Amino acid sequence: VCPDSGPMHIAAAVGTPVVGIYGLKEDFPKRWAPYQCPHRIIRLDNIPCDLKCVKADCPRFKCYEAIPDEMVVKAAEELLSTIGNTNFPS
Prior knowledge:
By secondary structure, the protein is α/β, with parallel strands linked by helices. 34% of the residues lie in helices and 11% in strands.
């Protein structure tokens, strides 16, 4: 579970299931989604940020803070259930 970043793509490259969080307006999950691995994408329909910043210089990351924790947990649980690995503690 991580934002659209290098670690997410490294995990995908070695086949690790990924929950990718795309919070910024400049994130494009259709273009930069994890490739050839089980994954789920987290993205709000209406990104609540009025700033015109990019990831490298965003001062607040309000867009990531707006994503409900439950949305991320649900995506992770759904992904785990599809790959058949339920040996994780709850």
